[in-house]
Amino acid sequence: LNVFGHGVCKLLPSIINDDWPGYSLELFNYPKHYSGDLECVYIPHGVIMDRTERLARNIMGDLGDHDIVVLCVLKAGYQFCADLVERIKALSRNSDHTLPMSVNFIRLKSYVNDQSTEDLHIVGAEDLSFLTGKVSSPAAIVDTGKTMKTLLKHVEAFRPKMIKVAGLLVKRVPNSSGCLPDYVGFEIPNRFVVGYALDYNEYFRDLNHICVISESGKLKYKV
Ligand code: IMP
After folding, report:
1. Domain residue ranges in the chain
2. Which of 17, 35, 126, 195 is most buried, by CB atoms within 10 Å?
3. Contact yes or no for 39/211 (Cβ under 8 A)
4. Which InterPro entries match (predicted)?
5. How far is the CA of 95 from the centre of ligand 1 (A)?
6. Euclidean distance between CA atoms 98 and 90, whole angstroms
């Protein structure tokens, strides 16, 4: 068993400070059905894509020429996973190095409204016996780190050779579990964000920018 990597953030994430107000919604396009539901564009889609391209290069540099199993953490991680895999594929076709990948999916659920709940469920792919090679498991967001910790425990039980975690967002939260991804897109303040597949009660996954939800948006989609 040779599991390593997590717990140490190897690469410096792009840090978004607490006083970052975001961009005015007027500056970008977003679906009309969300007007009034958002406060600002926090990370525009293009910036996410550019950062993902760089993460792909870093992953390629570290894991190039190995066989990997990508484990996408649904649902919030699907967009990041798809875009990251696309970028790695592009690098593989355009360089002497290559990174053969297979892609699998796992679903974890813990959030109701904007609060993390105690019971965390793993849905589907409970049997991860296909994880014999290396794993890079992309998660969209790490808040308290509880989800990632649970996921790692579950994955480690199947004795993969190596686990690397890529997370697009890591929140600066006081009660963090200290469990950090190996590859971090952005470190962000402790604010509830939506878009780019991140949801609030299943809404906003169809928004391409990462945005801050407004108070009226929270009320409108509250369960
Ligand atoms: P953790 O277990 O507290 O680290 O939470 C991680 C999970 O909570 C993620 O996989 C998300 O599904 C969800 N989550 C945490 N913060 C946000 C947010 O700001 N927007 C949307 N989902 C979030």
Report:
1. 14-220
2. 195
3. yes
4. HGPRT, PRTase-like, PRTase_dom
5. 35
6. 10
- Show the tokens assigned to 83: 């875009």
**Nearest atom of ligand 1 to the alpha carbon of 116:** 3
Residue 97's pLDDT is 82
CA-angle at 45, arms to 182 and 217, nearest 5°: 100
Task: Respond yes or no: is residue 143 known to be catalytic.
Answer: yes
The verdict on the CB of residue 143 being under 6 Å from ligand 1 is: yes
Q: Does ligand 1 have an atom closer than 6 angstroms to the CB of 190?
A: no
Residue with tokens 């990948």: 101
Interhelix angle 45-63/78-93, rounded to 10 degrees, is: 60
pLDDT for 1-57, tens place per residue?
222 333 444 555 799 999 999 999 999 999 999 999 999 999 999 999 999 999 999
Write out the H or E segment, with its range, that includes residue 132.
Answer: none
**pTM recorded for the entire structure:** 0.89
